[in-house]
Amino acid sequence: MLYTCVGRRSTKPFYMEGTEIGIYSAEELAYYIKENIMMLDSSFMDEGLCLFLESELGLGKIAGELIGVINRGGSLMDFLEVFFVLTGLGSENEIESMRRSVASRANMSPAEKYRLKGDFLVKGGKYSAAINEYNMAAAKTDENKKPKEAARISHNKAVAFTGMFCFEEARECFEHAFRLNPTASGTVDQMKAAEMMSKGKTGRSEEECDDAVGHKYRQYLRKKEEGDVSGARDIMRDILMELKSSYRKSYYSGM
């Protein structure tokens, strides 16, 4: 589906709260909303965002309607629907899909919301903030009643620690996740990989670290030794994606 441009493009970005993502146009805002719909809550209904739409993008009428939603105590979905209907940047099917997502998030437990926010922050590279969210999620999760959910939180916290190069802490979290959910077999390999990273090596032999994470970590070490900081960072990003991807597969297959 093609959309016509709405308003003008700003030379100064509006940074979304909790991220380093800068928005320069209505189209970029629409894309951000669609991609992160499960992360949005009432805090997204920000008058600062409305003022940005008015002053920087020339969308005064739309901004006025959005501020009206805020002033009359409208819901997040009211806010989103006004934006997408008036800009024409969302189809009826997309708006309906967003409505279902917003309703689904409203039914989540506090622990699930904290974990989801942590996942979002990891995606944006804000690992320390993500760990705080995972800690709050863990505090609201009974490991005896919901061991798989607790394991998921611990695993994702380990991924955040990996992003901070805190490999020993990552290993401990992976180990804890495995104890809570032994059927998530992928966690074992991740735990071993984190242990080897904490020791600054890839293992005693190639066979011991022949998984995807181990292979990428060997590449990471080579780039680091060569002084290629950018290349090493890119490979570490790949490692994080591999850790998250392999866990998703093992988590759902073990349910």
What would you say this structure looks like, in words?
Helices cover 66% and strands 2% of the residues. The protein contains twelve helices and two strands; from the N terminus they run ββαααααααααααα. The model is unreliable at 201-210 and 247-255 (pLDDT under 50).
Q: Can I get a quick summary?
A:
By secondary structure, this protein is mainly alpha-helical. 66% of the residues lie in helices and 2% in strands.
Helical stretch count?
12
Order of helices and strands: EEHHHHHHHHHHHH
- How many strand segments? 2
Helix content: 55-70%
Biggest sheet architecture: 2 strands, antiparallel
Report Rg: 21 Å
Question: Which term fits the overall shape?
Answer: globular
Which consecutive residue ranges, at least 5 long each, have pLDDT under 50? 201-210, 247-255
Structural category: mainly alpha
Summary keywords:
single chain, 255 residues, mainly alpha, two-stranded antiparallel sheet, 2 strands, 66% helix, globular, disordered C terminus
SSE layout and pairing:
Layout: E1 14-15, E2 22-23, H1 26-35, H2 47-55, H3 60-71, H4 76-87, H5 92-106, H6 110-123, H7 127-139, H8 147-163, H9 167-180, H10 186-198, H11 212-225, H12 229-253
Antiparallel strand pairs: 1-2
Helix pairs in contact: 2-3, 3-4, 4-5, 6-7, 6-8, 7-8, 8-9, 8-12, 9-10, 11-12
